[in-house]
Amino acid sequence: MLQLSKHATGVQLLRWNKKLPSASTQDPLGLNLRLSNRLATQLLYCITSITPRARYYAFFPWAFEDYAQNEQGKRADRGRVGGVLARERAMVLGAALHHKGKACSGGSLGGSEEAIKLYERGARPAYNLDAFKHLKAREGQFGAAYKASLINLGLFAGESEGVNEEAAADSQELDEETQSIEVTQLSPRGKRLADAYRRSVGAARYVKDHWTLQASVPAGVLKEFGARAGLCEIARKGAADRDVIRDILFSCDRNETQSTHYRRRMSLLLLLHAIGETAKIGIVFDRHAFNDLTYFGRVIRDEERGTSALLDVPAPLRDSAARWRMFHFHGYLTVALQSFLVTIVGILRQHPSGIDRAKLLDEFGAAALGARFRKLFNVKLPGSFFDLTPAALLSVAGVNVAEVLADRSASLKAASIESRFGERNLSLLLDDGEAEQISGITLASMLLYTVLLRYQTAVGAAYDAWYQNLVQDRFADLSVPGVLGTLRSEFGDTWWHRPNREILNLLIWRFVVLQHQTMGYERGFGGAAPLFHLDGTTIIGTEADFTEPGAPNGRFSSAMQILRDLALVDGDYEEGFALTPEGRTWLRDLLAKEQAS
Question: Quick check: 313 pLDDT over 90?
Answer without folding.
Answer: yes
